[in-house]
Amino acid sequence: MTTIKPAQLSALEDLTHAVAGLVHVEEPCLKTIETIRHLEMEKKPLQKNLEEKTTKLTYWKKEEININSWSIQWFFLSITCEVKAELERVRKHMKKDEELVREATSLVEEVDERIRDVERQNEKNEVDYRSLKNHREDLTELLDELLKGQDFGTEASLRKEIDDLEKEIEEAIESYNNLDRVRVCLTTADTALLEAILDLRQSNKEKEIGEGNVYFPQIAYDAIKEARELCKSLPPIQAPDKLEENDENTKAFYSPVQRYLWSVRRQLELLLEWCDKHSLDLVAVQTAKRLASGEKIDEWNRERRRLVKQVIL
Prior knowledge:
Keywords: Coiled coil. The chain is mostly helical. It has one domain (about 5-310). The chain contains nine helices and no strands. It has helices at about 5-20, 25-65, 70-80, 85-120, 125-145, 155-200, 205-210, 220-230, 255-310. It starts with 5 loop residues before the first helix and ends with a helix. The model has no long low-confidence stretch (mean pLDDT about 90).
């Protein structure tokens, strides 16, 4: 039988009281971290929108440079007396996109500030929560040592419940990380489609495609394929009911091939929203399971402390 030293009993009592004195911070800390995850998820589509608007603004700036340069584009426009009209059109789009970039930047900055506010409010709780976890771990290790070689049915059943909860937490984390990888793939596809749309505006590639044919960038295809391999339950991309003829913000006109690519981008937005919803569900599962696990560990350690004091001593 294990010989228990007075110093170990003293440490047992000290750690037990330390855990009890800090356990109240666990729920508010984890709930606030969950709130931060919600805000970070809220920021993702806003960040994506900002990147899209910035890309389009960059495109129009390049168009302005091309028109003002001695290029083939300038030559063809000049002989048809369309340089001035084309320059005005491009600058009109630039002005609109500059406004959209400012608006998108402001929305991202607002969420960033909200995240910082919540993080500041949770700083003390996070420090106390780390202390709680350290004390809980030290208490668990001490009780492991004191009960080494002992076998009690009551504590064994509690240990199994803890193991089950830890497994569920790991599964939720893995599912969350997997959805994050899916999201990266879908974002890669979305970016490739936008670049293809802009490339079609700048080049004669659409004429090479031929009427009635579909152009789809390989990067986007591979990224969507990978996303489906990572997540078998990812909803399918639906065929569009109608193809919009122009951008709802800048009113830029799009060709049939460009409109098709835009329709796929709209479907990708829906898939990203689906990922975000399920990711938030998994965040909630992690929070609930972590709270349950903490409570169960404390219950387990209380039972083991009782066994030490009432059975072993």
